[in-house]
Amino acid sequence: MSRLCDTELHVALQSSGAVLIEGAKWCGKTSTASNASRSVLFMQDPDNSGSYLAMADTKPSLLLKGETPRLIDEWQMAPVLWDAVRFEVDKRAETGQFILTGSAVPSDNVTAHTGTGRISRLMMRPMSLFESSESNGTVSLRALFDGNQDVGAQSDLNIEKIAFALCRGGWPASVKLKGTPALRMAMDYVEAVINYDVSRVDDVEKNPGRVRLLLRSLARNIATPASYQTIRTDIEATDITISDKTISSYINALRRIFVVEDLPAWAPSLRSKTAIRTSAKRHFVDPSIATAVLRTSPDGILKDFQYFGFLFEALCTRDIRVYAETNDGDVFHYRDKSGLESDLIVRLRDGRWAAIEVKLGNKQIDEAAENLLALKTRIDEEKMGEASFLMVITGGQYAYRRNDGVLVVPIACLRN
Predict the structure, then answer these.
(1) Alpha-carbon separation of residue 246 from 211, 239, 241, 273 (angstroms)
(2) Do 152 and 215 lie in a common domain?
(3) Are residues 222 and 343 in the same domain?
(4) CATH number of the domain residue 25 falls in
(5) Under a CB-based contact definition with an 8 Å cutoff, are residues 92 and 69 in contact?
(6) 211 plus 144 within the same structural domain
(7) CA angle 370, 365, 393 (to 5 degrees)
(8) Which domain holds residue 146?
(9) Of the candidates 201, 19, 204, 18, which has an alpha carbon nearest to the alpha carbon of residue 110?
(10) In the prediction, which pLDDT does 203 show?
């Protein structure tokens, strides 16, 4: 199945000596990189990994020999390969030499150089609804930024199908499966994180019970700016004491294996001196991690519509991040001390920006539109520029433009 980052990878290989693809395990990094490479080194190959590691310790340049682009999968198993690739890129003075993939960020100071100017970075996430063919892609984020805002489309995804897609997640191995088997991938992923991956990343043994409780707390507080105190109180309700320092170290480990990906706050120039909240919102790289760790199902979240709303926001955050990435953009949230907020702010590198509210049902669309219009008046547009568009993403069926100019678009109509 094609991925939106295929084009990004192709362009990066034309402009850089090497490309690093980072992201969570099982999100498709190796498949995407393999399609673009002509030779492969699998560092996790059980028949050869011992030999590869020994060679990396003695003469790492031998591992770099092969047709280019050469893929080095899970390079962080031998961090010395980073400097070897950087040196080889300098020596060859050609683009498109190597592709590195990694599902964990190695500890600090294991590489001598950052790779700036030689190694380009791509972030890969689980599949968006457009990539899994569940969004018809009739409304393009790029087209909206370019001024084409005469939206008119219909979603093929009802609430029940959205609930299923959310619990299944965007894991490539699961998107072609049906029913219960499709939901197993997220559960297996969570168990691997709890019992193995989170300790392996820094070789510091972590209590699986505490990791599970932490993930459950993050899941319950998804799409909110929950503080360490809130998380600690949540965990200690089970009679297990935990310090803020331990919470911080565990979350950092989860961040390094791309399980946790919080949404930072946007700090624009405002017309008035309103204080802006700077806390990040708690998010996983995929909302299915939340439903898996809470052992819930599509039927379960349909019975708790309030929590479903938070999960739906997490789903939209994942997809908008994927779409923004291909448009050279970043995603934030906004909230000020008056309580005015926007669930998602997309800011492109060229300075253009857009504000988005996420509402699962249609009843809150009017309120969401009022919030977006109020936010627009608060931004200092002389410094920030005028908003390219204001949009409410819904779980409904129809895309249209309101009389006040606010766009209403179902998540299953969006694409990059």
Answers:
(1) 10, 16, 10, 36
(2) yes
(3) yes
(4) 3.40.50.300
(5) no
(6) yes
(7) 105
(8) 139-415
(9) 201
(10) 73
> Taking the CB of residue 377, how many other CB atoms lie within 10 A of it?
8
Cα–Cα dist 378/128, whole Å = 32
Distance CA 151, CA 36 (A): 35
d(CA 393, CA 390): 10
Type of residue numbered 412: A
One-letter amino acid identity for 120?
S
In the block, tokens 């559960």 appear at 187
Q: Return d(Cα 301, Cα 165) in angstroms, integer.
A: 12
| pLDDT, position 118 | 83
The first and second tokens of residue 352, run together, are 């253009």
Residue 34's identity, in one-letter code, is S
Q: How many CB atoms lie within 10 A of CB 272?
A: 8
- Mean pLDDT, 10 residues at a time, over the chain (416 residues)? 93 95 94 96 92 93 95 93 93 95 71 66 96 96 94 93 97 92 94 89 83 96 95 87 90 94 94 87 98 97 96 98 96 93 96 97 92 94 94 96 96 96
Question: Greatest CA span in the chain, whole angstroms?
Answer: 68
Q: What domain count does the chain have? A: 2
Domain boundary among 124, 153, 181: 124
pLDDT at 416: 95
Does residue 105 sit in the same domain as residue 184?
Answer: no
CB of 140 closer than 8 Å to CB of 101: no
Q: How far apart are CA 134 and CA 247, in angstroms?
A: 36
Is there a single domain that holds both residue 86 and residue 161? no
